[in-house]
């Protein structure tokens, strides 16, 4: 069977400009777009991926040679993909008369309200996809629309730009509920933020987490602007994960701060203990969430006793995919909060902990190769907009409210959750600090 290639003029245009195309193309950003538009199949793109045994120049050369044999529409789809991935100069190089501004405006209007970064009541729904998507992709989305007529899909390829709104008044100095304590949050820094993000795994024992670098950047900017000192680590083996977590838990600096945050981002699995989660280290070994939390209990971590400890776990918690249910069966899934039982004991082992999970026990967690994981992107957007005046548990419910409208192109959905282990009311108070110096006595709840 003969292979129909692109138009001769278009093919020569690519060949003539091969040098610049190879030098300036970000292939890892471009490949998902070409796959999405049906230029290549998932099997075909394997030869262009980092683990294919070719260096990056060879991978890009092979891609531009092969695309010339992908049919008469391949050139037009290549131009669209270059524009959507911000390769504007290359798009103009191949097609000088292309109207970048008009095309970009159309893309922005399509993506402006797409979830998880936009308004739930307007924008791109599954029945309103741009015409430049492949016929196969449009048919697939059409089926999703019939099953989920109000759902939306994220078409934005530009990661979230984090910019925190600062508070105008302190929210931690009063509570309308007499039995609820509000944690003080005025130290400088507000606390320390341990960020562990495992993206690449040794010998490809687990799939590389493409897009996870966006989560890393977003969380770093978010918590820096919230007033935290960020301590980041990437791609750790199990022994290194344990060492870094133990060292962080024992830091003397916690005595002079009002809170701490721990975030672990990796592949994950259902833990052996009910409700627990195992995180994948880069050497393929597993770290239990129960072990992590034990490092920060009041016995092992006295420097953080009576201080709020927030844990953000972005990971799968099993292998089940959530494809939703029929409308008559649909129920509102609310994040679960574990009560402390109104205990009055002064020496409970686990207190002042808030556990934020990207998904429910047993289920997978979704990741966008352009914008990062659904959960971290939604969390960053909610926190940067509302941390100025909103309590953290209310914000976590707002995060889940964002997620409930989002659906992937394979039909999966996602529900986040959080657990409250003796955790009181917490406001970040971004931009506002105590006038006095940070003494140990000011940093704890009496």
From TrEMBL:
Keywords: Apoptosis, Hydrolase, Protease, Thiol protease, Zymogen. The active site is at residues 267, 316. It comes from the Eukaryota. GO terms for molecular function: cysteine-type endopeptidase activity. InterPro entries: CARD, Caspase-like_dom_sf, Caspase_his_AS, DEATH-like_dom_sf, Pept_C14, Pept_C14_caspase, Pept_C14_p10, Pept_C14_p20. The keyword Protease applies. Residues 189-320 form the Caspase family p20 domain. The keyword tRNA-binding does not apply. PROSITE patterns: CARD, CASPASE_HIS, CASPASE_P10, CASPASE_P20. Residues 343-430 form the Caspase family p10 domain. SMART domains: CARD, CASc. GO terms for biological process: apoptotic process; proteolysis; regulation of apoptotic process. Residues 6-97 form the CARD domain. SUPFAM superfamilies: Caspase-like, DEATH domain. Belongs to the peptidase C14A family. PANTHER family: CASPASE RECRUITMENT DOMAIN-CONTAINING PROTEIN 18, CASPASE-3. This is Uncharacterized protein. The lineage of its organism: Eukaryota, Metazoa, Ecdysozoa, Arthropoda, Hexapoda.
